[in-house]
Sequence to fold (125 residues):
Amino acid sequence: MKALPFWFIVVGALLGLAGMAWGIQMAISQDHTLAPGHAHNNLVGFVLMVIYGFYYKLVPAAAQSRLAMVHFVLALVGALTIGAGVAMATAGTGDWLAQIASLATILGLLAWIVTIFRHRAALSL
Fold:
């Protein structure tokens, strides 16, 4: 999928914006109780998604694979839910969403690792 790098980066940018807004809200309220959720949102939602997008831009053949689309779906589910899931777990309202988000995130990372090895010649590393 030629647009895959774009969508990884767009989702990452939007989640980065959400994470910054969440951080500002915590600073204004002086309540940093949910900081672990904010941190997970920024790391998985912003940093990982943007790194994935740059990788697929750097290795366009990898973006054309079916596994890349599986990776995107898993990463998207994880990125959209991990911040809220960790916040819920931190607040003591249940950890089920954090568990789902963590599973999706790690499966997405595993899919990316397989993709990297399948297309390692393109990176000349």
In short: The CA atoms of residues 7 and 53 lie 7 Å apart. The chain has a mean pLDDT of 96. The two ends are 24 Å apart (CA to CA).
